[in-house]
């Protein structure tokens, strides 16, 4: 006669990367944790007024929570907030980017798969987004470092088609092959090649070796920013074999901000 395995209960830090309502008053919470990887669990009565746990398990909060393992959804209890990143909720642009990086962290995590470097990266980037004046480059840094930590670092020194070291020039980027392609060595039949100017390549190489503070201080023109975003996103899509839900929200917020800034500049010129 086999005995039933006793449920395991542990306490862990985690970042809330997804929430959804469940039943009449419960909430399903998904956390990225350093030791246990992706953790999904039910917070009972979390939506009831006066719930002791509900206020701590909001999206993008860094929390400490007690987890009771089960065969399906774990049970979550005794949560406390380590860092609520409150200022992210007061800035829609930063909140949209924080949602984007948290979804990437979720997609690159697995259940019971320890990944302390990824967890540390997520905390550092959420912290940086609270105060940064360059959220665009903070997001680019997260994309690059995430690819590196996951073993999918882009090849930026040699042509992935020929293996030859690249000359300083404009080239192309192949997400399918995972790196830069010499203009004279376009793979036959591949139609998803992306332009990569010399300046963009320099920025990619700098991102690949920089720390967060250095990346945050990077300056890039509009064209380079656009190429950086397209290249790194394309590589992430290739790895995941899908896009991210949060991208549409982030792009919409950014588009509105650009229009607002452009309108402000026109009004300033007309008053001069």
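Q: What amino acid sequence fits the structure above?
A:
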């Amino acid at each position: 006669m086999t005995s039933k395995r006793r449920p395991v209960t542990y306490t862990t830090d985690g970042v809330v990367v997804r929430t959804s309502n469940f039943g009449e008053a419960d909430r399903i919470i998904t956390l990225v944790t350093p030791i246990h990887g992706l953790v999904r669990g039910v917070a009972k009565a979390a939506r009831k007024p006066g719930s002791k746990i509900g206020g701590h398990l909001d999206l993008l909060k860094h929390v400490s929570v007690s987890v009771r393992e089960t065969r399906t959804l774990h049970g979550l209890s005794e949560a406390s907030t380590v860092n609520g990143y409150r200022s992210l909720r007061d800035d829609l642009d930063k909140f949209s980017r924080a949602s984007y990086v948290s979804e990437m962290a979720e997609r690159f995590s697995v259940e019971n798969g320890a990944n302390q470097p990824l967890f540390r990266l997520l905390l550092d980037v959420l912290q940086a987004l609270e105060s940064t004046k360059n959220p665009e480059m903070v997001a680019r840094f997260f994309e690059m470092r995430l690819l590196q930590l996951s073993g999918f670092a882009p090849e930026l020194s040699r042509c992935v088609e020929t293996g030859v070291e690249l000359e300083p020039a404009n080239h192309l980027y192949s997400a399918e092959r995972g790196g830069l392609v010499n203009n004279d060595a376009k793979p036959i039949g591949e139609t998803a090649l992306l332009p990569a100017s010399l300046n963009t390549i320099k920025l990619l190489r700098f991102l690949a070796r920089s720390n967060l503070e250095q990346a945050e201080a990077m300056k890039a023109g509009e064209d380079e920013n656009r190429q950086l975003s397209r290249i790194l996103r394309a590589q992430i899509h290739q790895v995941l074999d899908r896009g991210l839900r949060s991208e549409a929200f982030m792009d919409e917020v950014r588009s509105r901000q650009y229009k607002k800034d452009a309108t402000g500049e026109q009004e300033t010129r007309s008053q001069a």
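Q: And what stands out in the fold?
A: The longest helix spans residues 246-271.
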